[in-house]
Amino acid sequence: MARKLCLAILRGDxxxxxxxxxxxxxxxxxxxxxxxxxxxxTATAVPAPPTSALPTATVAGRPPSxxxxxxDQIAFSSDxxxxxxxxxxxxxxxxxxxxxxxxxxxxxxxxxxxxxxxxFVSDRDGNYEIYVMDAGGTNQRRLTQTTNASESFxxxxxxxxxxxxxxxxxxxxxxxxxxxxxSGVRRLTDHPGEDxxxxxxxxxxxxxxxxxRDGNYEIYVMNTDGTNQQRLTRNTVHDGFPSxxxxxxKIAFAxxxxxxxxxxxxxxxxxxxxRLTDHPxEDSSPSWSPGGTQIVFSSGRDxxxEIYVMNxxxxxxxxxxxxxxxxxGAQNWSPAW
Length: 337
Known about the structure:
By secondary structure, the chain is mainly beta. 0% of the residues lie in helices and 40% in strands. A hairpin with a 6-residue loop joins strand 24 and strand 25.
């Protein structure tokens, strides 16, 4: 039975739902939002659902010391073998190697802080769940255990003890968090508008996420127990795919505020917005290098979705700053550095 896999990739005049025909019985539903015009960015407090605080292993507001990943490899999702699998490559695009190999869809990889593991999404057991594997592709195991729901977009806490993710298990898309072994799942948001695509602050005390609760997708931030939810962007266009910088000083995101989808940065309060890319193609899914000096992203600028890298200050157009890392004629999405 043919079905359509819907992955949240921003394209066209709205949130385009990327479609791939595969053989399987389930659909991952992705929401769509309208395009419009820019407005100033402000932070406005909104009510948060009552939740229990999750323990975080922090000392004086900082995560405990962990071995830092070297940042010499980028993980991404590609259908170059016929279906979507997790791949890794060197930061110059060389040494591309496939980590997963099955007839299911594997996508949305996320490195653990120490670089020893990769969390990802797969429908290999019939519905979309969060999995984890060793950095070399071995020891693949399932973390979430739902049967009539979907999970997506895993993100590690800075101490490596927790993973946030989004799920529609409660009837609508919300942000959840669990221990890195899959135990202790807690719901952080509870809103009829879609909440998803989360990213952690350096100190492990805040989570930024994307939400449609005001009618179009905007970026919000909250404490890691779900309290103190605040809106950071304020536009009638789509702002999404937040990615917190390694030093905690900036959040990269994708926005259609100038007409086409480009990569921007802002400070954690929503101010000092800077446009990094300026291209008629669609640029999305930014991910910072561990040192914070570069950003990898996906773009359709060569006719299909490929992975590119640029300096974190952007400096397009005409600077020669943007470099293409993949060039395989396939669809290459969700890069993670």
